[in-house]
C-alpha cells in the first residue's frame, strides 16, 4: 500500500512538471490555445507504472545483496567464456563481418550515412576510452582533436591541394602532437582540475577556428572538401558513401585490434595501474610522464584520423560542428559502455548515435525518452553495458606431501 501511495504522488508530481510542455500548445496559425489532456493522462499512467517498477527494482537489488559475490562470480565466468571461447567468438565475428560487408547493399544511402556516423563515434569512443577508461584521466575536450583532424584535411586541400590519402596520416600526426601538447602541462593534475584544463583546451581550439579568418575562414567554415578517390575513378555521391563506409569499417577493425592488444600489453597494464593508484605505480617504477603522454597522443591520433574521414564525408567543416556537446556524447559513450571495455564502447556508440535517429518518429518526445533511458541505465547499471572484466590471480596453499 505504501508503494502504491508513493507512486501515486510521483505521478502527480510528473504531471505537474510536464503540464506546460505536454498539455498547452499554442497554434500560431489559427491563434488559439490547444489543450491536450490525453497527453497528461498518458504521463500520469506512465509515471505511475515506472515508479512501481523503479521501487520493485530497488527492493530487489537490496534483497540480493547477500548473493552479490556469487552473482559477480557467475558474471565473471560468463564474460570469460564469452570472450575467450573461440567456438563462440568465431561464428559471431564472422556473422558481424558478413553483415558489415553487405550492409550498403541491403539498406539505403541514408541508412549507410547514419551507420558511418555511428562507426566514426565508435573510433572516437575507443580513443577516449584509452584516456578515460584505462588511464582514468577525465577529458572534457576530446572533440578538439577531432576538429584538428577535420581542419587538417580541409585546410591542406584548400591551400595546397593535398588529397585525402596524404592528409589522413597528417591528421593523425597533428592529433597526436596536440595530445602531447595538452599532456605536458597536466601531468600532475587529476579529477576536476584536469577536466577544467581539457575543457579550456577545447574552447581555445574552437575560438581559434572561429576568429582566425585569414587561415580557417572563420565561422563560415570550409566547403567543397573532396571525397576520397579510388585510383582516379570518378564516384557519384552514392558510390562515394559506400566507399567511405567500407573505409570506416576497416579502420574500426584495425583500431579495435590495436586497442585490444595494447590493453593486454605492458603499456596497457601501466595505464590501468596509474588509474588505480598513481603513487603506488610511480613507486613501483612506472614512468608516469611517458605513460600519460602515450595515452594522450594515441587518443589524439585516433580522433585526428577519423576527423579527416568525417571532413571527407560531409565535405564541409565549421567551428559549430565541434562543440562541447560532442565531447559530452563521446564521454557518455565511454561511461555508458563501461570504463575500459572495448565491446561496451562499441555497443554504447551504436545505441547513443542510432537511437536518436530511429526515434525521429517521436520527434517531440525522443530526447525525453533518450535522457530517461540514460538516467535509468546509470542508476541500475552504473558499471556500464558491459563492465570491464579484471583478471584475478589467486594464491592457494600447496598441500604438504605425505610423510614429509
Structure description:
By secondary structure, this protein is mostly helical. It has two domains: 2-59; 91-324, no CATH class. Helix content is 72%, strand content 3%. It contains 16 helices and four strands. The chain has helices spanning 2-22, 37-63, 68-84, 86-106, 109-134, 143-160, 164-183, 191-211, 213-216, 237-263, 266-276, 278-283, 288-314, 324-337, 342-358, 366-380, and strands at 24-27, 32-35, 222-223, 316-317. The strands form two sheets. A two-stranded antiparallel sheet has the order 1-2. The protein has a two-stranded antiparallel sheet with strand order 3-4. A hairpin with a 4-residue loop joins β1 and β2 (32-35). α10 runs antiparallel to α13 (288-314). The longest helix is centred in the first third of the chain and has 27 residues, at 37-63. It is globular, with a radius of gyration of 25 Å. The N and C termini lie far apart (67 Å).
Q: Spatial order of the strands in the main sheet?
A: 1-2
The SSE string, one letter per element, is HEEHHHHHHHHEHHHHEHHH
**Discrete helix count:** 16
Cα-based radius of gyration, to the nearest Å: 25 Å
Largest sheet: number of strands, sense, barrel closure: 2 strands, antiparallel
- Find the structural class using helix and strand composition: mainly alpha
In terms of per-residue confidence, which ranges show pLDDT below 50 for 5 or more consecutive residues?
65-70, 72-80
Task: Give the tally of structural domains.
Answer: 2
Give the CA-based shape.
Answer: globular
Question: How far is the N terminus from the C terminus?
Answer: 67 Å
Mean pLDDT comes to 79
- Fraction of residues in helices? over 70%
| Count of extended strands | 4
Strand fraction equals: under 5%
Amino acid at each position: 500500500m505504501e508503494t502504491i501511495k508513493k507512486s501515486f504522488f510521483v505521478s502527480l508530481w510528473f504531471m505537474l512538471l510536464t503540464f506546460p510542455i505536454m498539455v498547452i500548445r499554442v497554434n500560431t496559425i489559427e491563434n488559439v490555445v490547444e489543450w491536450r489532456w490525453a497527453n497528461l493522462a498518458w504521463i500520469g499512467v506512465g509515471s505511475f507504472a515506472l515508479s512501481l517498477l523503479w521501487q520493485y527494482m530497488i527492493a530487489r537489488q537490496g534483497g540480493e545483496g547477500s548473493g552479490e559475490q556469487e552473482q559477480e562470480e557467475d558474471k565473471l565466468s560468463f564474460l570469460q567464456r564469452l570472450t575467450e571461447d573461440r567456438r563462440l567468438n568465431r561464428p559471431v565475428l564472422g556473422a558481424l563481418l558478413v553483415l558489415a560487408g553487405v550492409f550498403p547493399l541491403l539498406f539505403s544511402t541514408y541508412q549507410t550515412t547514419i551507420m558511418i556516423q555511428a562507426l566514426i563515434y565508435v573510433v572516437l569512443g575507443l580513443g577516449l576510452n584509452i584516456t578515460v577508461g584505462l588511464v582514468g584521466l577525465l577529458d572534457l575536450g576530446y572533440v578538439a582533436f577531432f576538429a584538428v583532424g577535420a581542419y587538417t584535411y580541409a585546410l591542406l586541400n584548400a591551400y595546397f591541394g593535398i588529397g585525402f590519402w596524404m592528409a589522413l596520416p597528417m591528421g593523425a600526426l597533428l592529433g597526436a602532437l596536440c595530445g602531447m601538447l595538452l599532456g605536458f602541462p597536466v601531468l600532475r593534475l587529476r579529477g576536476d582540475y584536469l577536466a577544467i584544463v581539457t575543457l579550456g583546451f577545447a574552447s581555445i581550439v574552437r575560438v581559434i577556428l572561429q576568429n582566425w579568418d585569414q587561415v580557417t575562414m572563420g565561422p563560415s567554415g570550409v566547403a567543397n572538401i573532396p571525397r576520397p578517390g579510388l585510383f582516379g575513378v570518378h564516384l557519384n555521391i552514392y558510390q562515394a558513401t559506400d566507399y567511405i563506409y567500407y573505409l570506416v569499417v576497416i579502420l574500426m577493425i584495425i583500431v579495435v585490434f590495436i586497442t585490444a592488444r595494447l590493453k593486454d600489453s605492458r603499456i596497457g597494464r601501466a595505464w590501468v595501474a596509474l588509474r588505480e593508484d598513481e603513487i603506488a605505480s610511480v613507486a613501483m617504477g612506472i614512468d608516469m610522464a611517458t605513460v600519460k603522454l602515450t595515452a594522450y597522443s594515441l587518443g589524439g591520433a585516433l580522433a585526428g584520423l577519423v576527423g579527416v574521414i568525417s571532413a571527407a564525408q560531409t565535405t564541409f567543416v565549421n567551428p559549430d560542428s565541434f562543440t562541447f556537446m560532442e565531447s559530452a556524447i563521446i564521454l557518455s559513450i565511454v561511461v555508458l559502455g563501461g570504463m575500459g571495455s572495448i565491446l561496451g564502447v562499441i555497443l554504447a556508440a551504436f545505441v547513443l548515435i542510432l537511437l536518436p535517429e530511429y526515434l525521429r518518429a517521436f520527434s517531440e518526445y525522443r530526447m525525453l525518452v533518450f535522457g530517461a533511458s540514460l538516467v535509468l541505465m546509470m542508476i541500475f547499471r552504473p558499471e556500464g553495458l558491459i563492465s570491464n572484466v579484471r583478471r584475478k590471480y589467486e594464491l592457494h596453499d600447496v598441500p604438504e606431501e605425505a610423510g614429509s
